[in-house]
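Course exercise 7: structure representation. Students receive a sequence record and must write out the corresponding structure in token form. The form below is the worked example handed out in class, using CBP3-like protein (342 residues). Read each field label carefully; the graders check that inputs and outputs are placed in the correct fields and that the protein name is recorded exactly as given.

STUDENT ID: A-19
EXERCISE PROTEIN: CBP3-like protein
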Amino acid sequence: MASSSACRACKRALQQHTSSFAQATTRRSTAPSSSSLRRPFSLASRTAQQSQSPSQSAHAEAPTSPAKLDYPLSAQQAQRTAPGNAYASASAGGPSHATMSQVIAQGLHGRAGDSTETYVAYGGTEMLFRECARQADYRVEKDSEGDAPKTAKGEDLGVGEGWWYEGLGLTPTFNTWAQITFLHMYILTTHIRKFPKEHAPAWHQHLLDHFFYEAENRMVIYHNMQARGIRNRYLQDLFIQWRGVMAAYDEGLVKGDAVLAAALWRNIWKAEEINATGLAAVVSYLRREINRLEQITISDFTSGQITFGGPEQEEAVVAEESPQLSEPFTATESEHTEEAKN
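STUDENT ANSWER:
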């Protein structure tokens, strides 16, 4: 009996809610059309209102009904599919969910403070990582049985384009993609280290997490690694490689280009025979990009608005002959040369 009366009570509540919603919809459809009612109420407008003086904010009209917040469905759809709109749907070719979540988090960051830092860091690092990952992107073309071609060492051989593969002659494999992605993640890491100590760990961790998400995704899709245990072993090895990359490149930045070139040679070229000009171009490219990030504002960096310049631009730089090659040896240098021979 109690169940029956509860059911009837639910029905009455549902009918009242439906009636109220229909009345609100009717009022909204018959309301006079004006630009003030059709103005999109977005997060950007809220942020602009927050930047007003306290006296202006106090007199600002607060929305009191759904009619002041909504506008025709066609206008909403047009806004969501408009190029450059932060709320555009992914199916319409607009920004991803990471972009949308980042815009929301940044709008709330001023109010909530540090509590939204992890959301801002997640969205920002996802876009930063995508820029890193696309530098040496590749694909694997499988045969009718789902098998990929192999290299002489047994790695799945992919198809890659761009300077890293066509200019340097690197083999398009998973390991090559990982090492070049590490290189660009390291460039970003040198900038993240300047963040306040309460913010830097979140940015470091999210950037690394995005790499592991993508790496595991490629293991499954491109390389048929269906067993989680096998993937975990590869991911653990990649984490060790990342720690080694940071230590080696840090040492190279401090001790000079020769040490940095040796670190790049071991990680990217696997200590195999290479073109010295190409290696010198990568060394110059790494230093150039680190210096360029010094000029980028924090807002551009945290919003993910970072693009890397092409390393091929450094080929002309390293091709120039150093003026010191034509200078004679000093007495001290001659003594060191003789000591080395002996």
